[in-house]
Amino acid sequence: MTVHRNGSTTRAKGDDAPRGALSREDWPGLALAVAFCELAGIVPGIVTREDVAALNERETVDPDIAPPGWVVPLVWNVLFALMGIALYLVWRDAGDTPEGKVAVGFFSAQLGLNVAWSFVAFGSRARNTYLVGFAMIVPLLLAVAVTVVAFARVSLRAALLLVPYLAWVSFATVLCYRGWRLNR
């Protein structure tokens, strides 16, 4: 597609894919971005597996809104895949622009906080792990919100892919707060 000075566009012969659509050339980069994000969830899960099992044996009261244990890893797998797709779209469409670099920087920061949250919350030997989780998740929630805004400046589609993640982290924030209050 060619963009002309007056803002009009013309498509090259054979260029019938909608603007922003994924092509075959995108698949390797997309797969790499999704795998990178999935690893950000898998590695802490493996490392803290025994700590999570020990947490389940503690006498803590879970909030009434706590989902069943089997739901959490399924949700996170979907969310990490969506994050990878969103990251790829921003990187592909604007990775070399100032806005794109800022968006990817915020994404990296929130992903680092996400990984740290897993290690701190699940690896903690604190009596009230909900308190530790709450203290860590508030900065994560803010970082995710800022990332969504930064992505929206580059790609609305990428920002929308992060909305379920923002919703889940918001829910987890409420869950941690309620758990902390129940177990004081």
Automatic annotation (TrEMBL):
Name of the protein in its database record: TspO/MBR family protein
Top-rank taxon: Archaea
Biased composition (Basic and acidic residues): 12-21
Xref: Pfam families: TspO_MBR (PF03073)
Membrane topology category: Multi-pass membrane protein
Keyword ATP-binding: no
Family the entry assigns: Belongs to the TspO/BZRP family.
One GO CC term, this protein: membrane
Keywords in alphabetical order: Membrane, Transmembrane, Transmembrane helix
PANTHER family associated with the record: PERIPHERAL-TYPE BENZODIAZEPINE RECEPTOR, TRANSLOCATOR PROTEIN
Locations listed in the record: Membrane
Single GO biological process annotation from the record: tetrapyrrole metabolic process
Residues covered by region (Disordered): 1-21
Organism: Halomarina halobia
